[in-house]
Amino acid sequence: MHNRRLATAARWLALPCLAAAGLLAWYVTREPASPLAGEAPPDAALVSRGEYVARLSDCVACHSLPAGKPFAGGLEMATPLGSIHATNITPDRQTGIGTYSLADFDRAVRQGVAPGGRRLYPAMPYPSYAKLSDDDVRALYAFFMHGVPPVNQANLQSDIPWPLNLRWPIALWNGLFSPTTPYAVKPAQDALWNRGAYIVQGPGHCGSCHTPRGLAFNEKALDERGAPFLAGALLDGWYAPSLRGDHNTGLGRWSEADIVQFLKTGRNQHAVVFGSMTEAFNNSTQFMNDEDLTAIARYLKSLPGDRERDGAPWQYQALPATHLDTPGAQTYLTHCASCHGLDGKGQPEWMPPLAGATSALAKEDASAINITLNGSQRVVAQGQPDAYRMPAFREQLSDRQIADVLTFMRSAWGNRGGAVQAQAVAKLREHTDPASSSPIILHMR
User: Which ranges of the sequence are coiled-coil (predicted)?
Assistant: First the structure.
């Protein structure tokens, strides 16, 4: 009798468990609905609009190899779980997206779901692209179907090991961390602010680099309602600085005109693009129209800083003569002063100032170490390569010498970023070396 009751109870318990398992299986394998239907005609104006949206979205940066065909994929990208490869998004019907309907394309771009319900890794910034408008998605689709030449190039498999390579948990991640609706206009703000917010949060996916991540690798905030939004983050061996109104480590000292100039020309009186931002400038921001650049600047300047996080406002302080007796100062005089000046003020718009630089005021020292080890990539503005580049000192200076010179730089002229340790230099030296067996950066951007 007792065993019969246990068996009956087990059957009753099994029913809700099976139902829950079935519901979970349906949820993680389903193809979400798309509000878009039909096809995009090869209308020249629509294709041109889509090309501009692709520039806003910087699609070419991840979906192209430096010497490869545009949008043909193949770029290897490091993740904490292993490396993945960007896919072919040309309209080739065998290896690209040539068989995608408009609804298929929409689901992939805004919801991270490929045809057949296959979940995309969120290295594809669909949590940001979720905010794209229906019209911009239609235009993007028209561009990729009618404005991009098809390239027959097979996609490469990721090397993420089992069971971490299972895709179904991504559906749960999406449910927790990815928006499901396009950007909604804020009636209390004007049209220019809303346009800037749309670009920054949506196609520009600025938060992918500049917003800190949580334990699940999710962006801690997706818009201005969250204080962590665009507050600065470590990524790929670089520190993407705050884009908020922080005086020291953000845009507090920048005017709207400074922001527009930086995004349009790659430089201004405060800084020159370097690190991952070089790629964003070369492929994206310089091609934006002036109205959109102004909108971005207006929106970013509306984001408040955090005095508690940022500290007291930086003020320039002349360098005392006694400060030049240290080993780091001597290395600076030998290798750095000819460009950046003994006063640390550089030659604005060409040789960036180190006095008051974000990399000299931020607690995070990754960018300062990385740029010193590996130098800067070529900035190409309006088709013209920049004549001035930060050289790499990987071969010339030891870990101790780099640590010393950066410690000097981060404590001179009123800077207070703090000392740099030789161990930190050694670690980043190894992990940014293409010959390393354990690189964290598989493509130096």
Answer: none
Distances (CA, A) of 19 to 22, 24, 133, 167, 261: 5, 9, 36, 21, 58
User: Do the beta carbons of residue 382 and residue 286 sit within 8 Å?
Assistant: yes
What's residue 436's pLDDT?
A: 60
* Mean pLDDT rounded to a whole number for the chain: 90
Rg (the chain; Cα; Å): 24
Annotated binding site for heme c: 59, 62-63, 206, 209-210, 336, 339-340
- At 159, is the secondary structure helix, strand, or coil? coil
Binding-site residues, in ranges, read 59, 62-63, 206, 209-210, 336, 339-340
Helices (H), 223-270: 256-265
Provide the total of helices (H) and of strands (E) in the chain, helices listed first. 19, 8
Are 142 and 46 within 8 A, CB to CB? yes
Per-residue pLDDT at 22 exceeds 60: no
CB 284 within 8 A of CB 56: yes
The full 3-state SS of 94-151, as one line of letters, equals CCCCCCCCHHHHHHHHHHCEEHHHEECCCCCCHHHHCCCCHHHHHHHHHHHHHCCCCC
Q: How far apart are the C-alpha atoms of 405 and 278, rounded to whole Å? A: 24
> Cα separation of 110 and 385, whole Å?
34
pLDDT digits (tens, 9 = 90+) for 60-105: 999 999 889 999 999 988 777 788 999 999 999 999 999 999 999 9
Nearest to 206 by CA among 257, 259, 135: 259
Upstream peptide bond of 163 is cis (omega within 30 degrees of 0):
yes
Q: Which residue, among 133, 134, 130, 84, has the nearest Cα to 109 in the 3D structure?
A: 130
3-class DSSP state of 335: helix
Check if the beta carbon of residue 12 is closer than 8 Å to that of residue 118: no
41: Cα within 13 Å, side-chain hemisphere:
3
Contact 132, 112 (CB under 8 A): no
Confidence band of 443 (pLDDT split at 50, 70, 90): very low
